[in-house]
Write a structure and sequence with these properties.
With about 110 residues, this protein is mainly beta. It has 1 helix and 6 strands; from the N terminus they run E-E-E-E-E-E-H.
Length: about 110
């Protein structure tokens, strides 16, 4: 797993996700991914809101592994326990990651 990967996450008992796996984008730096017990992600939704300041469009294609056009929800950034990370389904493009980085800076006022 590395920054930019799209993975599935789910935990029916946690209360913050649906019981079905849902996609998320890994935004944590690779430097802390190997030895840390949590992973910081932005949730991905197929319910398009068109809020470009903090919802970044991401295509549905074989590279992303997504089935529907979606948005990276920068307003839903969170760290999850590593054991809640499922399989890798794809990866975001460099252009998408740049847009996510910009949106994270806006959202967090960095």
């Amino acid at each position: 797993m590395k920054r930019g990967d799209i993975v599935t996450i789910a935990d029916a008992n946690a209360g913050d996700f649906a019981s079905k796996p849902r996609p998320a984008l890994v935004v944590q730096t690779d430097a802390f991914l190997r030895d840390h017990d949590s992973v910081t992600v932005c949730l991905i939704t197929s319910q398009l809101a068109g809020l470009g300041m903090f919802r970044i469009p991401i295509a549905a294609n074989p590279d992303t592994g997504l089935f529907k056009p979606s948005e990276v929800s920068v307003d839903k950034v969170q760290s999850v326990w590593r054991h809640r990370i499922g399989r890798r389904v794809g990866a975001a493009s460099n252009e998408t990651m740049f847009a996510v980085d910009q949106a994270l800076r806006r959202w967090l006022e960095l």
